[in-house]
Structures are given as structure tokens and as C-alpha cells.
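Service request form, structural biology core

Requester: graduate student, group of Dr. S.
Request type: structure prediction, single chain
Budget code: on file
Notes: please return the result as C-alpha cells.

Sequence provided:
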Amino acid sequence: MNELMVIKIGGTEGVNFDLLCKEVADYVKSGQQIVVVHGGSNDANLLGEALNYPPKFLTSPDGYTSRYTDARTLEIFSMAVNGKVNTLLVSKFQQAGVNAFGLCGLDGRLLLAQRKKALQGVENGKRKIIRDDFSGKIEQVNAGILRWLLAQEMVPVIAPIAVSHAGDALNVDADRVAAMVAVALQADKLLLFTAVKGLYQNFPDESTWIPRLKISDLESAMQFSQGRMKKKVLGAQEALASGVKEVAIADGRVENPIAHALSGQATWIGG
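Core staff response, request fulfilled:
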């Protein structure tokens, strides 16, 4: 039986949805089981700008960047990510000849998360405490839903919105969602597709691209990774610590992106 793969399609500008969906469909037709998690940051940013409610981002004292998600931002994020991107990806899979099922973490309590009571941000060198944020950290994945969909020969396509213990919708980081889904399904591989070749020692200098990292190297990688890449490294660390065999940070702009990554043209961690 083929290995189970979880593939995260990044929502950053430049990631080619058409190429990724076509290749996922080809792999599924050959018998490969794949679960797709996606982002939608670029679409959420554009929609926020169009609605005259531009996004705001927080940088934590540890250097992690996250979207400040008040109630209005959550509405915009949901419209963009669940309403537009999820529907678009499911449509592309259907056009490519595979049956896909779009859902988010609210559906069937697929992704249960703890709402963050407070966020810390650094602005102009000063720490700020944010208490009205609708974001959370995944605590549980309802793997039974995903296994049932896979058994029906459908591709689950998951938007990064979770449900809180109180039933609220929460914005959750898509890379960490992909990691938790991979753990829950005991996936063999987790592939995180973005708009760069992988992890760089000194971004954006492509000559510093790192083809492989040991698990023991991840702490140092946290120090030199920048911006959103930190969340990818953190997601990789969480997945590998809980039984996923290998994680790749890979280029979602190239032809045959999955085969490209599997051939070694990505940053592979673990294994």
C-alpha cells in the first residue's frame, strides 16, 4: 500500500495551485492517499484591503509572526480562506478528475483548538498584550472523519479554521494544522509547499539553500529562519516529534512540484 502523505498548499503569493492540484490528482489516481491542508494568507490580505480593513500582523517576543484576528478580521479570513480558496481548490481537483471534499475545522469538530487568552506582540521595541484575538492552538484532530473520506476515495481539503471548546471559529496556523493532521493520521510524509525552494541559512541568498536537516538541527534552524518560515520549522518539529517520518519544505512554483520535492529538490527534515 502506498504511503499516506499530507500536503500543505501555501497561500502565499507565487504558489501555483494549478500545478499542485494536477499533480495531487495524478498521484491519487495511481492509488496514493493524500490529505490536503491549505493556507490563504494572500487572498485574505487582498480581501481585507478591498473591504477597507487591511490586515495587521503581530510579531511575538520569540520572533513568530501571526495575523491579528479580531472579530471582523475573522469574518474576512473565513470568507477568503474557507469561502474562496477552499472552494477553488476543490473545483480544481474535480476538474482534474478526482473527488475532493472541502471542509474546515468547524465541520464535524474536525480541528478542536484552545483559544489563546492573550497574545504578546512587540511594537517599536515595546511589548503589547492583545486579548480580543480569535486565534487558537490545535489540541485535537478528528482523524475518523479524514479516514472515512479517504476510504471513500475522496481527497480531504482542509481550510485552517478550527472550533474552540465554546464553539467559536478560530484562525489557526495552516502549517501547524498540517503537522497535527499528519500526526493524527500517522502520515509517512508531510510536504509544506511555499514560494521558495526550501529553507535558507541566509534568506534570500539561494546559495545558502539547505537540502537536508537532522532533527537535532531544528533548534538552530529556528534561530536563522525568518518570518513565516519559523512556523514551518515549528510545524516540522512538532510533526517529527510525534511520529511523522519525514517533512519537506518545498517549492510550490515549479512543474511537478511533488516529484520535484521527492527527488531531493526541497529541504528534507528527519528520515
